[in-house]
Amino acid sequence: MYGSVEPDNLRPCVETTMRELRAALASGITDEELARVKEQVKGGMLLSLEDTWSVASRNGSHQQRYGRVIPVEQVVSEVEQVTRDDVLRVAGRVLQEGALHMAVIGPYEDGDELLPLLRLAEPAGA
Question: Do you know which SUPFAM superfamilies this protein is assigned to (predicted)?
Fold first, then answer.
């Protein structure tokens, strides 16, 4: 995940992001959210095929990782097969307490004050 905000909005942005992650871990995502993400993933991938450098990078990456170039149609099919349960299962495996990291780039002086916000447990009094 990434975001770009003014320094004064960084704390609210992190708080909102963590609240959304907690909600997703607790109850998953909606069918509408899943459909929107699928379209975004497919659209981004298909648009990248218009750029020669992106195609070469994709092909090289696939060759390195999988020993072959995976056809676009197969990737689109696999994206379509992702379920809400799949997302929740992977989120539960990836989003672990104590394993979250954040990088802040820009004119922000006290990143340490943000560290307590990187908790998946619901904050006291929330």
Answer: LuxS/MPP-like metallohydrolase
